[in-house]
Amino acid sequence: MARTRTPVVAGWFTEGTDEREFRLLGSRCSACAAVFFPREDTFCRNPGCAGGGELAQVPLSKRGRVWSYTDGRYRPPVPYVSDPDAPWEPYTLVAVELAAERMVVLGQAAPGVGVADLSVGMEVEVVPGILNEDAETVWATWHWRPVDGVGGAE
């Protein structure tokens, strides 16, 4: 039986596993051109926006530069899933300033990428990732991977 691939948070990124087409999804205000992530569907979050225009879904930059990074040495809260009886494996968090939007987006590094592989200013790209799997579902998310090829594929 095939497992269902389900986004951890619907509407935050494109679905599927094609790395070339994978993108984070944001919103752009038609009145002030401000871009938001996560998406906003109700109102413009820009306090300087006088018009409060229509919000349109837009794909965000695929690449950006590492703004900051750290390793997580604790079990994070939901939606992260982990077996409390299994030994804890640290994970790497990366804050990335997107190329065109000039906004910082947080996410996990791709499997095989640790803090020793990263540096501030390094170019990274967003790729499809897996947060958790069970017998019925693959819980999909995004990961950041250095453009120079550090780290393995899932």
Verbal overview:
- It is a single chain.
- This protein is an all-beta fold.
- It has no helices and 9 strands.
- The protein has strands at 4-7, 25-29, 35-36, 55-59, 63-72, 91-98, 104-109, 123-133, 137-146.
- The strands form 2 sheets. The protein has a 5-stranded mixed β-barrel.
- The two termini are 20 Å apart.
- The model has no long low-confidence stretch (mean pLDDT 89).
Quick tags:
154 residues, mainly beta, five-stranded mixed beta barrel, three-stranded antiparallel beta sheet, 0% helix
What is the topological layout?
Elements: E1 4-7, E2 25-29, E3 35-36, E4 55-59, E5 63-72, E6 91-98, E7 104-109, E8 123-133, E9 137-146
Parallel strand pairs: 1-9, 7-9
Antiparallel strand pairs: 2-3, 2-4, 5-6, 5-8, 6-7, 8-9
